[in-house]
Design brief:
The structure is a homodimer of 640-residue chains. By secondary structure, the first copy, chain A, is of the alpha+beta class. The first copy, chain A, folds into 3 domains: 401 residues, Glycosyltransferase (Alpha/alpha barrel), CATH 1.50.10; 98 residues, Immunoglobulin-like (Sandwich); 105 residues, no CATH class. In chain A, 31% of the residues lie in helices and 18% in strands. Chain A has 13 helices and 25 strands. In chain A, the strands form 4 sheets. In chain A, strands 3, 16, 17, 18, 19, 20, 21, 23, 24 and 25 form a 10-stranded antiparallel sheet that branches. Chain A has a 7-stranded antiparallel sheet with strand order 2-8-9-10-15-12-13. In chain A, a hairpin with a 5-residue loop joins β8 and β9. In chain A, α2 packs parallel to α4, α3 packs parallel to α13 and α7 packs parallel to α9. The radius of gyration of chain A is 25 Å and the shape is globular.
Chain lengths: 640, 640
């Protein structure tokens, strides 16, 4: 049975809930979902129309491809926007979004060729031939996003949607064209793997699942031409089963990993699942930023080396955050290990939430942990390349990120909890209601109230439950390490990755969770050269940062030191830390008349610059750059 | 009068010597010059022929441009190779090199069009039109390197060389085509500016000097289309007189700066000279690596922000080192400030000398200060892109660096000293002989003997001198800060940037310089986030590094700490420092069975890992990676 959830394996350790079974109706993420519906999605639609990416389908239908606009992969942006609309329509009716959706789909349907092929960049007279540039052409990638949009339509209850028919015909075309004995190759940007497999799950068509499996198995055999960035860039260097780590282009690597998990699950391939699980663990241990961000390098948008985690040049593409959530969620479903919820939570609060501005009309494509310069804001009508500006931009020529954030927000309530067969396992802490059917047919309904993460208390009221014993489990966040669980007045404190209770807990039962969300200081591993001698401030799952405009004594963030013994207090607006402001030294400003003797910035003794005690003001990282250009740092040098 | 020296201003504070007046005949750099003649130059010629770049001129002459091979700018590589050959032929006769030179020049001459235009990538039937891609087409850049090769031929005494005639005709074409009222634009990669101006000096043609000045003045007015990297990338964002810093693509910025200095000097434009001088000082203070390397970013080969100096992702393109020497040398001549010799020395020993392997058959294109992984060596017949491999490569598709090193080595003895009018100013310390004519017509000849930088003693014997008082000056290296000068047994110790003696110092006089070259520990400025809590070891002008293969207890460089109180000893092969080896923690090797729990690399307390005292072995940075793949670091974390 199809339910409104993004990943629906045929077998799993725990079962996902639909966005109808689990809803969010308050707090941080309800606000984000509302922002998505009211501002982000309309903004995306406006820009994709303005850029001509929607109209490309009309031009393709009418064979006016010489007027086509945008990069080769813009079809995928339209599909991803449709997927985001689909999830939002699944969440609640919206006539305006429905009209947009229907209008766009009609043109996509008209652009589809007789034989099912559908691309505005390839295959028409005067265009490159179909599949003539599998390395960079993104045809399979675009098809994948079409299939994900169609899957969303099926899952929210519209299997008869025109887009589903279009997707089925294009999928059939791809399956046939890339069958054994035909084009035994792959696409340069993974996406078809996870998308076609999920479309197979959604349609019950095993041919799609087998095609996805073939795409996974073919990768790493050099069926793509080498690239300037090396074959590692698109994970075609070695087969996935031989790899020990995620590598190359981060979004490509994470999308591929998601597909590999899907294939492993559907094919009962525990060996592959174990391999990919270890690859992701290795990535978490050595190639992940404090924010959950992944991908260090600008030049090839790649992971970089182990422990190469520079804060200022962190790429941390927003889409890599989405990809990491995709991977972690699939591993959680496949293994039942609730601790995958830790990286999901960290990435949601510190990457996904950081991307859109508070008004939902501009976005970060890259998410660095340090900003050295005040840069200009992009004008409201200005389209950026992608990672050039260090402030949010209203739109990008490469615009994968906004719609990826949007579809994630639309699906979000599906990630709150899972059905553990005999009850529910809570993964994220958001106000809302969960109502589902247990494996024995019983109904379980919970009401969740919380101010989390502002405080650490989550109150769960059982609205409906079986008469017999059932199991309530909850993730214990890694940053907490401990949780006090109180049921009907009886408390116990659990440590580790999860807490679990089994018993008869009828309607009216109250389960109270308590976690220590006091601000805390975090230190980097000694292997991370780039932030040696620094510390960061966190509160619950939220990473904080110093933004220049909040500091009273000096706007020069280079002059601040944080006291490792600092008491940290939350004044409602800032976390306040104690530290020092170093005396005025040379600054970054060349017009300030500072010493100008041409000496290199190296000395024969350690610098000791006196300072004065001061208070450091920190704000949540996801809130930075919402008040005009400023400088920012997450990692603050240690001092008194 | 033309003499064999790369830069010959019509007015200057101090006068350059020719490579015939100043020779190097022993020590480190004589070995490098011999390597250049015997191995590097033949290697470059072999590869430029193998890649088809030489043959492109024949194909162009015969209008078979459909067979043309290589990137759009390979003509420049051939010209730069010819320039390197010219300087080497100026240094000493070499029949083999002369034959190569003559053979290549004949084809270049045949490829030149009737009207003087000369390009294998543009202007023929089936090719893009002339000047149709000034942003990326590199026509003016290629022309510039042709002019520099021709200037070298004039300067070493061959003004009648066919290449000079070819260059003159192409220069005239460019002057006319880019005259006021015609194409009032510039080229995307500066080079024509400094080259055409120097060609004007070499030919005495003021039209070239004025054309160069126009190219300088036009830049910054957006006559180039914007690029993905922004207009800053090719310094077209703002006029050079409005800029306060070097920015964008490092090689482009430095070549432009060299041209701006040339123009300022020839046009007696002290305002421009002052502006550019401050820009370079700012770059030295905030955007220069300990090695003298410049340019931090891989993505656009750019400077990056102030104090953005990551050791592992340091780009430090070899050509940027050459460009920095070009700028510093011009400023030294224009101002008489010998302290510009400091950055020249540092760059020579730690960038230029680092690029070629000890056998002269492979090269670094980028020069990072940390290498995290053992990477594969490129095979002897393998052409790399440019910066992909972290080991030296025999050749590159973008091959600007090898010939840039080669031409610099061929010119090198011209950088040893300058004529200060009433004597000589010594800038670099290399065994050799200097013989020149003072402004009053007197002859001055010095013999220099030294083991520098192995020791700090330089012995100068006056071979020939005026009967009257003359002035001997010498740079006091910045790393020394002090120098003891002994003349005929009488010593004095000077501090500051230079020492100067004026007196009657007849033939037979001995001047002895003594500098403290004991190994020392160097600390980074507090603004450099990327190497906080680390120190480096230097000895004289030479930066040292730890290479994994030299360490006895562990190959994992992450485990070593250097004692800031360490005594440093030189055992003839290594500098030995005391420090500690941390106990075995998690390593970079994913196959080592280390903890695999998926925890992020962040902790709630500072890590304190015990260790044992040990000896750190350091080698000169320029020697690293000559004994197979290894890991390396210049900056070593401080510990006991």
């Amino acid at each position: 049975m199809q339910i409104a959830t993004p990943v629906l394996p045929s077998t799993e350790a725990v079962s996902p809930l639909s966005i109808h079974e689990s809803t969010i109706d308050g707090g941080f993420w309800a606000t984000m979902q509302k922002l998505n519906a009211d501002r982000i999605l309309p903004h995306i639609i406006t820009w994709e129309r303005r850029m001509g990416w929607v109209d490309n389908f009309r031009l393709s239908a009418e064979h006016h491809i010489e007027q086509r606009r945008g990069a080769v992969f813009t079809d995928s942006d339209v599909y991803k926007m449709l997927e985001a609309i689909a999830w939002e329509l699944g969440r609640q009716p919206n006539d305006a979004l429905q009209r947009e959706f229907d209008d766009i789909v009609q043109w996509i349907a008209k652009a589809q060729r007789e034989d099912g092929y559908l691309e505005t960049s390839f295959g028409d007279t005067g265009q490159p031939a179909r599949y003539s540039d599998l390395e960079w052409g993104h045809e399979l990638y675009c098809c994948g996003h079409l299939l994900q949009a169609a899957t969303a339509r099926i899952r929210i209850g519209h299997p008869d949607c025109a887009l589903v028919g279009v997707a089925r015909r294009f999928a059939d075309r791809i399956v046939e064209d890339f069958a054994p004995g035909r084009i035994e190759r792959i696409g340069g940007h993974p996406e078809i793997e996870t998308a076609m497999l999920e479309f197979g799950r959604a349609t019950g068509n095993d041919a799609y699942i087998q095609a996805a499996t073939r795409f996974i198995n073919r990768r790493g055999h050099h069926t793509l031409a080498d690239s300037h960035f090396g074959r590692e860039y698109f994970q075609d260097d070695i087969p996935i089963r031989q790899a020990t780590r995620l590598r190359g282009h981060a979004v490509r690597a994470l999308y591929l990993t998601a597909g590999a998990i899907d294939c492993a699950v559907e094919n009962h391939d525990d060996e592959l699942l174990g391999i990919v699980r270890r690859q992701y663990q290795d990535t978490l241990e050595k190639r992940t930023y404090l924010t959950g961000g992944m991908g260090s390098r600008h030049s090839d948008e790649a992971f970089g080396d182990d422990y190469e985690l520079p804060p200022d040049r962190a790429y941390c593409e927003t889409c890599a955050g989405v990809g990491s959530i995709m991977v972690a969620w699939r591993l959680l479903l496949a293994t039942g290990d609730l601790s995958y919820g830790n990286i999901i939570e960290r990435t949601l609060y510190n990457v996904i939430a950081a991307s859109p501005s508070t008004d939902g009309t501009s976005f970060f494509y890259v998410n660095p942990l340090q900003q050295r310069n005040r840069t200009h804001e992009a004008a409201p009508d200005q389209c950026s390349l992608r990672a050039q500006a260090s402030t949010r931009a209203p739109w990008f020529e490469v615009a994968c990120c906004p719609s990826n954030v949007s579809r994630t927000l639309g699906q979000l309530s599906a990630y709150v909890a899972v059905n553990n067969g005999n009850g529910l396992s809570l993964i994220q802490f958001m106000p809302g209601t969960i109502r589902t059917t247990l494996h024995d047919g019983g109904t379980l309904a919970l009401r969740i109230e919380t101010q989390y993460p502002d405080d650490g208390i989550v109150t769960i009221t059982v609205l409906d439950a079986p008469q017999t014993a059932w199991t309530f489990s909850t993730r214990i966040p890694d940053w907490a390490g401990t949780m006090t669980v109180t049921v009907n007045g009886r408390s116990r404190t659990d440590q580790g990755a999860q807490a679990s209770l089994t018993g008869v807990m009828p309607a009216g039962t109250t389960i109270r969770l308590e976690m220590p969300v006091a601000p805390r200081i975090t230190y980097p591993d000694m292997h991370i050269d780039a932030v040696r001698g620094c510390a960061a401030v966190e509160r619950g799952p939220i990473v904080y940062c110093m933004e220049s405009i909040d500091q009273k004594l000096s706007q020069d963030l280079n002059r601040y030191r944080i006291d490792p013994q600092s008491t940290l207090t939350d004044d409602g607006r800032y976390i306040l830390a104690t530290g020092s402001l170093l005396n005025d030294g040379p600054t970054d400003d060349p017009t300030d008349g500072s010493a100008d003797d041409g000496r290199l910035p190296y000395h024969d003794a350690e610098q000791h610059i006196g300072g004065q005690p001061c208070t450091l003001r920190l704000v949540p990282y996801h809130d930075w750059a919402n008040r005009g250009p400023s400088t920012m740092r997450v990692w603050i040098p240690l001092g008194e």
